[in-house]
Each structure stands twice: as structure tokens, then as C-alpha cells.
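User: My collaborator and I are trying to settle a disagreement about how two of our proteins should look. Neither of us wants to argue from intuition anymore, so we agreed to look at predicted structures for both before our next call. Could you fold the first one, then the second, and keep them clearly separated?

Assistant: That sounds like a sensible way to settle it. I'll keep them separate. The first protein:
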Amino acid sequence: MAKEELPGVLILDIGGTHGVLENIAALLRKHFHLITMKEFLENKEEMSKKIASIFVFECRPTIDRELLESLPNLKVIGNSGVGVDHLDLKMISSFGVKVTNTPHAVADPTADIGMALMLASARRLVEGNVLNFSG
């Protein structure tokens, strides 16, 4: 499939402070034509027709009424993360747009960190590390 044939997905940016991580962008490129917010804002008329999806990474881009009104072919908003509290689901659904998320994507890493913190606390690893390097 040519790049032009792939459905467009709007993302804030790639890399940087708030952009989608490079490895995630590489995965998205296999199935979508990535359109950054900057590209969209520079050429709204053309880009708005190409965007079928928005990929929300770390609560960005912000989904508001103005954005939704400017995307006539938008079908789905994919949220990278568990919660969707930052999204106005009622407003989004009024545009006929579906919302998805990744509820189990971070379950194992979260459990791993929890166990590591409990073990570190029980074994006083942080205190031991400070004593090890203070002398």
C-alpha cells in the first residue's frame, strides 16, 4: 500500500518533549500516514480530509470541539494508556467518533514496579545505597 493510500492519523509530534516516541511512531507508520499537528495546522483544508484517526499520547493532542469540527472523516480516537478521563466522551461520541484505549498495556510493568518498590523498602536498599556511596 502506498503512503497516500494509508489512512491518516493525527499526532502531536514525533519525539521531543511531548511527541510520540520514535519506536511507537515506527509501529504507527506501518498502518497509517502520520500527520503531525504542525502539518495539520499549516494546511488544514487538505490535511483535514486525510485524517481518519487521532493517536493521543500522554493526553496530547487536546481533543476539543473545534478540532473535531475540523475533521470530517474522523472515525476513531486511540488513546495510548489506560484512562480516558481527559477525554469528553459524550462530546466525542456526538460526532460519531469512537474512542479506544490500551487498558492492559502497562499492567505488568506497573506490577513489576510495585513489587520492586516493596522489596526496596523492605530491604532498605535506598538507605544502603546512600551508605555505600557516602563513605
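The second protein, kept apart from the first:
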Amino acid sequence: AWARSRSINNRQRGSFSSFALALMLIHVLQRRPCPLLPSLQDLAITQNLPPLFLQGTDCRFCGDLPQIHLHLAELQKSCGPNEESLGELLLEFFRYFGYVYETGVIAIRDISSFTPRFEPGQSFYVVDNPFEPTKDV
């Protein structure tokens, strides 16, 4: 609703899609000093879950809620549960994409297994599609 009210959620008009904004939010929540979300795809690989290929792309993810909670507790071991308010997290989203992020692929999973097709400095706000590697959403 926030993005729609500011007309910045329409990919056809050159702004972000709702999917891209959701991925950007997940990206920030995964990278907080005390993370709020794990990477479900990376967790599936760590657990050696069988690959799930969709159009030639491994799209496996962990859907086991107790295992996800256990992994998140492991990520938060040194900092405890994240206690940032929604307002603080929203401010961090704006701070991150307004001041911290400079270039590179915004991803919610490990992208080291493939080479992004974007030239550094050529694209700004490249948001990786977790279901179609190297596709900017």
C-alpha cells in the first residue's frame, strides 16, 4: 500500500514490482545484526534436501517450520531474538537502500553458485529472482 500510494510499485512504468520490494525487504531482514529471517533455500542446501528443478533451476527450499525456527535460533545465538520495532525496521530498510547499498545483486540466497549477468556499475538495484537465477525482477 505504501509503495502503491507513491506510484513506485509498477515495473511497467520503470519502478519496482511488488515482488522486487518484497525480496528487498527479505534481504534487509536477513542481514540485520540480529537476523529476523533465514534463507530458506540456503537452509535446504545445508540440510541436503533433494533438488527441486523448475525450468532447469534448483528451487528447493526448507518448509519445515521447526527446522526453520531452530536455524533462526542458531543465527541469533550471539545476539538473542531481534527486538527492533517495526518502525526501526522500516527506517533500516530506507537507510540501507538509500545510503548503504551502492551496487551488486540484492539476493535472498547464496548466489555464489552462478555468475550474475549484470555488469557492476551498469545496473542499480538489481534484485535477483530466487526462482530464475540471473533474472532481475
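Some points you might bring to the call about the second protein. The longest helix spans residues 86-100. Strands lie at 53-54, 57-58, 105-106, 126-129, 132-136.
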